[in-house]
Design a protein that fits this description.
This protein has 553 residues and is an alpha+beta fold. Helix content is 44%, strand content 13%. Strand 2 and strand 3 form a beta hairpin. Helix 8 runs antiparallel to helix 12, helix 13 runs parallel beside helix 14 and helix 14 crosses helix 18. The longest helix has 24 residues. It is flat.
C-alpha cells in the first residue's frame, strides 16, 4: 500500500459544533486537539510505505488511534468501533460525523510497519518534540529511572513443561505444513503423550518419576530430529522455526554420552538465564527472579522528568530480556538521551543502576551526575560493625600505600584482575605486623590483611558518592526518585504494562513505547487542566500517631 501526500484536514464544522455541545468543558481528546493541534503528520511515516500500490489509510490517524487505544485499554476491534461511534474521537481525528471505522486489521499492520521500518520510539519522540516546543522539558534538568517486570503473553512453565511443550509445538507445526509426512513417520506413542497440553497437573509427582518422564521426552525429541535429518528429500523441514527451536532447546536441556540421554542439571551445565529458552511460544521471554518475585517475560526501564513546576513526562522507555541487570542499561539510556539531545544534569537512580565505573563514565562521557545509593561494603568486617572495614584505613593513591587503624603501613601494591577481567588493586600488609597485632581478630581471619581497591578514578568517585550520601541536601534531592515508582504503578494499573499483549521482544518494546506515549498524553491533559498531583497517602494510624492535631478520616 502506498502513502498519499494528503494534507491533514481541518475539523469538520458539524463535528466541531456537536463535540463542543456534547462536551462544553472539553475532555482529554478535545482539549489535546485544541491545545496541541497537529502532533503526527503523514510525512513522518513516509519510509513505512512503498512508492506504488493501493492508497493506505492516513498514518497520522492510525498513530493517534493507536495511542488512544492504549489510553483506554482497548483491543483493535474496540478501537475501530470507537473511531466510528465516538464524537470526541472523530473530533481529534478530524472526521465527519458520518465517517465509518477502518477494518481492525489495519491497526495490526500499522504496528508491524512501525517495528520493521521506523524507529520504535517514533510516536513518543514526535510528542516529546511538541513538548519541547512548549518548554515542558527542561534542558539539562533532572530525570529519574527505575525498572519493573513484564510478564510474557505465555503460560509460565517449569523445565519439564517447557521441553514437553517444545516437542508438542514441533509436532503441531509439522502436522500443519507436512501432514502426509507426519502421518507416515509419527511414532504411535507420541499421540498419547503430546496430543494435549503438557500441564503441571499431568506431571509425575516424585522427582524420580519426573526425571524418567524428562528422559522419555528427551528420547522422543532426539527420535524426531533423527527422522527429520535423515530425510534428504525433505530437507526443508529442518528449517522450520519450530524444528530449529526444538534442536536449540534439546542442546540446552539434554546431552548424549555414549548414546545415553542425560538431563542437564547445575552440575551438567544449564545455560545462564539470559540464554536459556523458557517457552517454545516466545523465544525471547526469559526467566528472572528479583527478591521474592519470579517471572517469565521481560524487564521495562522507565525514565521521566521530575521538575516540580513542569509536567512529569516519560522521555525514555526500553524493554529488555528479564535477566539483564539494571547496571547494564545505564550507559545505553544515556546514549539514547544524548542522541535525542535530552541528557540531564542529574540522573536519579536506585542502587541497581550504579557502580563505580558508571559513576566515572556518566560524568566523563555524558556530563551527567549519577545520583543514588551506592552498594555498601559487604565484607564481614563492615557487616559486623566492630571490625576494621575499608573505610577505617587511610589510603593514599598517589603514594600507593595504605595505613591500618593500628598504624601499620602496607608492604605491597599490585594490579590484579577479577573473574570478570575487571582491573583492581591488591594491597597487602606484612605478615609479621599482622601476626602480633592486638587487633587481628577485628581485622582478618587470614595470616595477614589484604585490601581490594578499585582503580584510582573509580575509587575516588565511589568515596565522593558515599560522602555525598551523608549530606542533608542529598536526601532531599534523592527523595524525588521515589516518584518514578508511582509512574510504574500507574503504567501497571491503568495502562496494562504488567503483561505483554504480543509475542516477542520487539513487539513488547513497541507496546511499552506506546504506553509511555499514552501516559504522556494523559499527563499533559491533567497539566493543562491544572489538576494538582496526588500526594503519597498516609494511613489513619500514622496520621493519629504523627499528626495528632489532624482528624482521622
Amino acid at each position: 500500500m502506498m502513502l498519499k501526500p494528503n494534507k491533514i484536514p481541518e475539523i469538520p464544522i458539524l463535528t466541531k459544533q456537536v463535540a463542543h455541545a456534547s462536551f462544553p468543558k472539553g475532555n482529554i481528546y478535545i482539549t489535546l486537539k485544541d491545545e496541541l493541534g497537529i502532533i503526527y503528520e503523514n510525512e513522518f511515516f513516509a519510509d513505512l510505505f512503498p512508492a506504488k500500490g493501493q492508497p493506505a489509510a492516513d498514518p497520522w490517524r492510525l498513530a493517534m488511534i493507536t495511542v488512544m487505544q492504549f489510553i483506554e485499554g482497548l483491543s483493535d476491534r474496540q478501537a475501530v468501533e470507537a473511531m466510528a461511534s465516538r464524537i470526541d474521537w472523530k473530533y481529534l481525528l478530524s472526521l465527519e460525523l458520518t465517517a465509518t471505522g477502518y477494518d481492525n486489521s489495519v491497526l495490526c499492520e500499522f504496528r508491524s510497519r512501525l517495528i520493521k521500518g521506523a524507529p520504535v520510539t517514533l510516536l513518543l519522540d514526535r510528542l516529546l518534540k511538541k513538548c519541547e516546543e512548549r518548554k515542558w522539558i527542561k534542558k539539562r534538568g533532572t530525570i529519574r529511572t527505575d525498572s519493573t517486570h513484564m510478564l510474557g503473553a505465555i503460560r509460565a512453565t517449569n523445565r519439564l513443561v517447557c521441553i514437553g511443550e517444545t516437542i508438542r509445538a514441533a509436532l503441531n507445526s509439522l502436522a500443519t505444513v507436512a501432514p502426509d509426512w507426519m502421518r507416515q513417520h509419527a511414532i504411535p506413542d507420541w499421540t498419547k503423550r503430546y496430543s494435549s497440553r503438557i500441564g503441571s497437573t499431568r506431571l509425575p509427582q516424585s522427582q524420580l518419576k519426573q526425571l524418567g518422564f524428562a528422559i522419555q521426552i528427551g528420547k522422543d525429541g532426539y527420535d524426531l530430529l533423527d527422522i527429520i535429518y535423515q530425510q534428504d528429500d525433505e530437507g526443508w523441514l529442518r528449517n522450520l522455526p519450530a524444528v530449529k527451536l526444538l534442536r536449540n532447546v534439546w542442546v540446552q536441556q539434554f546431552y548424549l554420552q555414549e548414546d545415553k540421554i542425560n538431563y542437564r542439571d547445575k552440575q551438567l551445565g544449564i545455560p545462564p538465564a539470559l540464554q536459556f529458552i523458557s517457552s517454545p511460544y516466545d523465544k525471547d521471554a526469559r526467566y528472572a527472579k528479583k527478591y521474592t518475585t519470579s517471572w517469565i517475560g521481560y524487564k521495562v526501564h522507565i525514565t521521566e522528568t521530575c521538575q516540580e513546576d513542569l509536567p512529569y513526562l516519560i522521555t525514555h522507555m526500553v524493554t529488555t530480556k528479564s535477566p539483564i541487570a539494571d547496571s547494564n542499561m545505564t550507559d545505553g539510556i544515556h546514549d539514547d538521551l544524548k542522541k535525542d539531545k535530552r541528557l540531564p544534569k542529574t540522573h536519579l537512580v536506585d542502587t541497581g543502576y550504579i557502580d563505580s565505573a558508571l559513576l566515572v563514565n556518566s560524568k566523563k562521557q555524558y556530563a551527567v551526575e549519577l545520583l543514588g545509593p551506592t552498594r555498601s561494603d559487604q565484607k564481614w568486617q563492615a557487616r559486623s560493625g566492630k571490625g576494621f572495614a575499608l573505610k577505617n584505613f587511610k589510603v593514599d593513591l598517589d603514594k600507593q600505600e595504605a595505613i591500618c587503624p593500628e598504624g601499620h603501613t602496607s608492604k605491597s601494591w599490585t594490579i590484579a584482575y577479577d573473574k570478570r577481567k575487571k582491573e583492581m588493586i591488591k594491597v597487602k600488609f606484612s605478615m609479621k605486623d599482622c601476626k602480633v597485632c592486638k587487633s587481628k581478630a577485628f581485622c582478618t581471619k587470614a595470616q595477614r590483611r589484604t585490601l581490594t581497591l578499585l582503580p584510582k578514578e573509580e575509587y575516588q568517585a565511589m568515596i565522593k558518592a558515599r560522602i555525598g550520601q551523608s549530606r542533608g541536601d542529598y536526601i532531599t534531592t534523592y527523595n524525588r526518585r521515589a516518584g518514578v515508582e508511582a509512574t510504574i504503578s500507574l503504567g501497571v494499573r491503568a495502562f496494562g504494562m504488567r503483561r505483554s499483549r504480543y509475542i516477542g521482544l520487539c513487539k513488547a518494546n513497541l507496546q511499552n513505547v506506546i504506553i509511555a506515549t499514552a501516559m504522556n498524553f494523559s499527563r499533559i491533559y491533567y497539566w493543562l487542566e491544572e489538576r494538582p498531583r496526588e500526594r503519597t497517602r498516609i494511613s489513619a494510624f500514622r496520621k493519629l500517631m504523627e499528626y495528632p492535631d489532624r482528624i482521622v478520616a
